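User: For a benchmark we're assembling, each entry needs the component sequences followed by a predicted structure for the full assembly. Here are entry 17's components. Please fill in the structure.
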Amino acid sequence: MGNVEQLFCEICRDFSDVKYTITPITEMVKNVSFTYNKKAAKCTGCDSEIFVPEIHDENLEARLAAYHTNVL
Ligand SMILES: [Zn+2]
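Assistant: Structure for entry 17:
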C-alpha cells in the first residue's frame, strides 16, 4: 500500500486521492482509561472520512488490544 491511493468518495461521487491519518484516541470503559491510535482514510478533495472495512477492523483490534493491555 502506497501513501496515495484512490478510493470512491461518496461526497465527491468520484474516485479521489486518499490520505491516511492516525489520531490517538483516549477512551474510558468500565473505569479503565486507554489510548489507541485510530486510523482513518480521508478524501483529499472534501476532507471527509471514507469508510474502509480493513481500517475499521484494524481500529477495533487496536482498541481492544489497548484496553486489554491496561486491564491486565
Ligand atoms: Zn470527497
